[in-house]
Amino acid sequence: MAYGFRIYNQAGQLTLSSSNFGFTMLDKIEVSPYSTSSRSYSGVSDLVIHVAQTQKEPTAASVDEILAFNVMNTSVSLSGADVIVSWSPRIVSGIARNVILYVMVMA
Amino acid sequence: MTYGIKLLGHNNSLPVSSVSPALAFRGKATRITGAGMTYYPADSGYDFYFRSNYFGNSYDTLTVAGTPGIYKFYAGIYNSAVAPRYDLKFTASIPREIIVVTYRIVCPSIPTVFCNTISHTTKASVLGISQNGTSGGIPVWDIKTSISFPLGLVESTLISYITLYCFSEVVPADSTSSFGISAFSGTGQMTFTSDVKPLKIKDYVLFTSSTTPPSLQDTIYTRSFSPNPETPTLSIAKAGFMNSDFGRYDSRQYILQGWVSRSDGYWFYNAYMTTKYATAGLAVTPGGELDIALNAIKYEMSVGEIATSGAQTPSASPVTTSKLEAFPTYIPVIDCADYD
User: Fold this and answer.
1) How many CA atoms does the CB half-sphere of B10 hold within 13 Å?
2) Are residues A106 and B128, on separate chains, in Cβ contact within 8 Å?
């Protein structure tokens, strides 16, 4: 390679290099599927933030619970030097479950 | 960022930084077996009746206007012993095409899950994740996963096709050696250590909200990749797709039409079946195309109306409605072979 970096482990295996896409986790937020709110992050305004999500499932399992489908609207915006991650309800179908928002740094 | 370390990767991405923690490979989730841990969505069928006071002796079967071959419907004359009358019975027999299976992983925080399948006709998606106690002081996570597959195949075999690769943020305990590199945030949080297998994204799949609603099984999509991917998905040996509830919600109606022969003519009946879909499973076909299956998780059937009488052709036309929700647009892809 003519540029970039490589990281090897003790066994000499290449574990990471600049050929890989970046993917780090800035935050995980558990929210109610009915909630509308936001959270701000400083020092990351030069990075690309992406929000993914998944349902948080209650421990008890039943057939009915798999019918639950809860999804949030999410958006990322800049406010001065801060990055604002916002969310609001999108779909609450069946049992209302909390949603985990994965705030990821892509670049 | 105004301080710390930032190592940029391909396409100016950020594999290592002191801002946010990298994700470390935590292992492959173990499938939970045993009573109560593996179960199936409703597939027993639903019965609906049309009742009339007519005394007859007729019988016929329903036809499906919509997607024949996916569902089976039966109709017949049902005789009530209490009040002599003949009822038309609709039974929707739902084929078992979805299995819900619970997987388990020990992981310091709620895992980020990538699904791999060795057969593109069988796909998995995560329905939800919950903590189930601890093991050695480390949280245990149950990952409820739906697996979709073509009709008529052996479930136990299909389940073995699926592997879940789990990742979570690095923690201080991950640094186990006295060499290599580590990175820390301004608050002292470890954000990277060379002692773990970090998550390496090989590609992204991009969807748009205008994507045409897929059919129930194995609709092949045109996929769009991010600019300058290191490894196009086509050439990834063992693609794993991040599950992040990227799935779609799709509601459709199918009209079922049946008729009963009576002495005064033919009487026609309609019933409506609604299907709802949730998260989707992804796979790469041997030909290199991206394959998506929606995992149907709910079936509803309701009685419609008596369409007409005295004629042999139902007057109502098949009704199909659908709704599509597409979100988010990026699906990260890894090469699971990196973690085997």
Assistant:
1) 18
2) no
